[in-house]
Each structure stands twice: as structure tokens, then as C-alpha cells.
Write a structure and sequence with these properties.
alpha/beta, Rossmann fold, seven-stranded mixed sheet, about 40% helix
């Protein structure tokens, strides 16, 4: 079983047994995402939320006027996301899809890609496909906001990614921001994995 397959199975089991600490992080990350977007000073457009889970960030972006598509490979999470969107009174397209096979599932034309913890758990092979797909579906000068752990061996947990890993992989993008993530309110153990926000802009 590939690392990416293990991660996928792990997320499915986590949602099934309600062991989902990243859901708690939704409100915490919302302000950080907005702070990273503010310098861009662009009007809301099309945003793709990769690994959207139960839809917290997708719904928050829709409330700000963005046209949002969220993808995840866990159907249970997507069911919860659709229910939350209905209750919030916003329209979000939630799609059961894989981050390594995007174009036929979600089309092109995205101005912003949001990734809160997807890329850093992928295998090397899947990372290559991810970059190709994200580059294909995004507009010129699109932005990519990525939350990721720093690199390290953690068994079934995401293996993380370094700044240099990101710069090498995203050859057609420019890394413009690399900052510590604010983890106030999250488990203290998160401090040990060097959580970061990367912001890239497509050339």
C-alpha cells in the first residue's frame, strides 16, 4: 500500500470514528487564511478547496463572496459539508474527487487554490500529479495557500514538507510567503511538527 493510500484510509477511518482534530482547527485557520489573502487585494473569484473535509473553509469563503468548489475523497466528510452549507445558506459545489485527478472533476479557471493539510501527506508520486493538476486548473497569477507540517517521520501521520521541497516541486509557481501557523487553541503536540503556511503565486 502506498503512503497516499494509507493516508486516504486513515482519513476515512478518522471520520468514521469521529477522530478529527483538524475540524476543530476550522475557526482558528479562518482568520489566518484571510490575513494571507489580504495582501493580494483581489476581488473574490473561483476558489478550489482541496481536501475540504466537512467544508468549514469552503463555507467561510462562500460567505465572503467566492465561487467555491470543495473536493475530498471521503464521502462521509462531503455529506457533512453539504449539510453544513445548506444550514449556512450558501452555495458550494462539493465533489468526490482526488487531488491527483482534478481537471475532469472540477474544470479549470480557478483564481485561488486552498490546501489545508492535503499536499503534505501525499506520496512522492502523488505530489507530482498534484502539482500538474493544480497548475492545469488554475489561472495565470492564481494563488495557492497551503498549510503543512514540517518534514519528519511520524508513522501514519502526514510526513510534512519543507520550503525547499515546495520550491522544487512547484516550478511554475513562485513561493512568496512562508510563515509560522498560529496554533493557539490546538493540541500542544502540533508545535513539534513546525506547522506553516505557504503562499505561492502562479507565474
Amino acid at each position: 500500500m502506498r503512503k497516499g493510500d494509507e493516508m486516504g484510509l486513515g482519513y476515512k477511518l478518522a471520520y468514521r470514528f469521529k477522530i478529527t482534530p483538524w475540524v476543530t482547527a476550522g475557526p482558528i485557520f479562518e482568520n489566518q487564511i484571510q490575513a494571507l489573502l489580504d495582501p493580494l487585494d483581489v476581488p473574490p473569484g473561483k476558489v478550489l478547496d482541496i481536501g475540504c473535509g466537512t467544508g468549514y473553509q469552503a463555507i467561510a469563503m462562500a460567505k465572503r463572496g467566492w465561487q467555491v468548489t470543495g473536493i475530498d475523497n471521503v464521502k462521509l466528510a462531503l455529506d457533512k459539508a453539504r449539510s453544513r452549507a445548506r444550514k449556512a445558506g450558501v452555495e458550494v459545489q462539493f465533489v468526490h474527487a482526488d487531488a491527483t485527478d482534478l481537471e475532469h472533476a472540477v474544470g479549470r479557471g480557478y483564481h485561488l487554490i486552498l490546501d489545508v493539510g492535503c499536499y503534505h501527506g501525499l506520496s512522492d508520486q502523488d505530489r507530482v500529479a498534484y502539482v500538474e493538476n493544480v497548475t492545469a486548473v488554475s489561472e495565470p497569477h492564481a494563488a495557492l495557500l497551503m498549510f503543512a507540517f514540517g518534514p519528519g517521520y511520524r508513522g501514519p501521520l502526514p510526513r510534512g514538507v519543507s520550503r525547499s521541497d515546495v520550491e522544487r516541486a512547484f516550478e511554475k509557481w513562485k513561493l512568496v510567503t512562508d510563515v509560522d501557523a498560529d496554533i493557539v487553541g490546538l493540541p500542544r503536540a502540533i508545535e513539534k511538527v513546525d506547522p506553516r503556511w505557504f503562499r505561492l503565486v502562479k507565474n
